[in-house]
Amino acid sequence: MNGIPNQGALDGLRVLDLSRVLAGPWASQLLADLGADVVKVERPGTGDDTRAWGPPWLSDEDGESTGESAYYLCANRNKRSVTIDLSEPDGQRLVKELASKADVVVENFKVGGLSQYGLDYASLKELNPRLVYCSITGFGQTGPYAARAGYDFLIQGMGGLMSLTGRADGTEGEGPLKVGVALTDITTGLYATVAILAALARRERSGIGQHIDLALLDVQIACLANQATNYIVGGVVPRRIGNAHPNIVPYQDFPTADGHMIIAVGNDSQFASLCTALGKPEWGKDERFASNPRRVKNRNELIAMICGITVSRATGDWIAAMEAAGVPCGPINNLDQVFEDPQVQSRNVRIEMSHPLAKHVALVANPIRMSESPVQYRQSPPTLGQHTGEVLQDWLDMAAADIDELRRTKLL
């Protein structure tokens, strides 16, 4: 890989990334972090849509904007960027050649969007029967909504997540809310990675690849988890209850003398310990609260009683007392507090990488910790077309003169 060290778990795997924005790039970044050679194909001149999704922008050593958005930087580490004009037949030919050398293709065009270029699964399968081809769309390859564009915010609403998120009706600030990050895109990227690795494992036995059809809506509904089964099993439509848990009490935020904290009691023993820490050990034996089903039934009464006590002390004092009692408890941190947290710092969650336009770029580390093939940070998120010549030589053995001619014709 032309001087890029690669000794990860997926060393030798070639991924052609035709996706943009977040769900697809999140999946391909994870594969890249695990050692795959990921080549990101972008439009000449503009590239991935998220390159323009700023501010904030990465600053150079003089504090000037480099034009690289923080949004783009979050999902494109360890990749190589190639610019190719897909609207031109010669550009389509180049991508086909790259696909013939790839193990995996990831794309998130609209349904049928790549067939006009001969870059759909059926076409590329003829060139490379071992290809694992992952398509990510809002609603999947089939169904009445298949042709619609799908965005995370839209899917959070349609998929039920927003109906569960937000303050309860009749309370201050009531109403549905989206999650503060594009969580459906992220979880779809994770499901895509799992599916790709499963398809590769099967290919080792069968010798052939396959098509993966992933829909944001499907993923969002799957990730409703217990809330979905609560409805399917119980027949009752869940409602918004703020930060509380539908099945466990007490499991929510509580006011303190200087802010708020979270108490997350998962069993009756922890509840008894909580009561002792609150100075009310008798609550643990009260028939109204002695078991979780009874606490759920008497939720409002119990929560009011706990709130009446937690407001008497500062958050830090309560957290220390709860930790000593073995009660799961913690603060609600802002992001500056997150990255200042000693646990976060000890795990090296923030990393820095060199960047061609800046002294360095700060990123969030991959959370996977592997003993024998750890994640390696080989390549900062690439600038647009940074590796075009390198990849065409590496994957296609193309001569430098031919690459220069393609550049002259504005194909790259």
TrEMBL record:
Pfam families for this protein: CoA_transf_3
Start and end residues of each stretch annotated as Disordered: 44-64
Keyword field: Transferase
Domain of life, per lineage: Bacteria
Keyword Transferase set for record: yes
InterPro entries per the UniProt record, alphabetical: CoA-transferase_III_domain, CoA-Trfase_fam_III, CoA-Trfase_III_dom3_sf, CoA-Trfase_III_dom_1_sf
Official protein name in the record: CoA transferase
Species assigned in the record: Paraburkholderia hospita
